[in-house]
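Appendix B. One record, verbatim.
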Amino acid sequence: MTSPITLITGTSSGIGLEIALQSAAAGHTVIATMRDLAKAGALRDAASANGVTVDIRQLDVTDAASIEACVASVIADHGRIDALVNNAGAGHVATIENETLDDVRQVMEVNFFGVVAVTKAVMPLLRASGGRIVTVTSVGGAVGQPFSEAYCAAKFAVEGFMESLAPVAATVGVSVSVVEPGAVASEFVPNIGLSSAKMVAEAGAYGPALGAYLATSGSSFARAQSSADAAAAIVAVLVADAPPARSQTSDGARAFVGTKYSDLDGSAVQHLTRGWVAS
């Protein structure tokens, strides 16, 4: 058996970088992609330090030509793709009155349409190989959270897309899984580019609630799961004989998501999340 050819998006840092390393260590031929190859140094150094090989290529999930070129190059070099890990994404903190519709559209473009576009491009190859899709979503794909309206909407959309695709893909031999991390200590939060004091000062009537939310969020990330641990849970799904349709990366994430799935009238989630914005 040759090693599986696995395409991973968003591997320049954090969970994606760790997924690439751990997938390679598990025996996969890893095509590690990122939007900006100038940021590839961290992955190259980590791969060298861990004694694994990764094939780093450019792929911008919001650019159709970039997706097409990357997939074509993988086929030219390897002849097939056996697994796709949709990991690329971007954080966003705002409320709708204080942002533009273009802001919301951009969040959806990166976090939802990017996933859809890469999945569409790779699906015929996965059908040919009897492969699998593992999509990294978020507990925010199950539980709506304050000041995360656009981000959670995108992650909800990804979960709905994948949950709906799963039975259809299964008829042609492709498995579909989503994995939901909670708070993870990675570059994801710094990459949002938050200036808390500035955001609160500019939030107008929402300033007190935003300040309370940022304090709560900061406390959660102070107790965050490591990127390596979250990636280990994701790679476990990638290599499983019978991968689950949905899983979480930690006990905390499981408990949080469980609140939603046992909350038929929405009262439990609202009680929880309203506490995050109480000043």
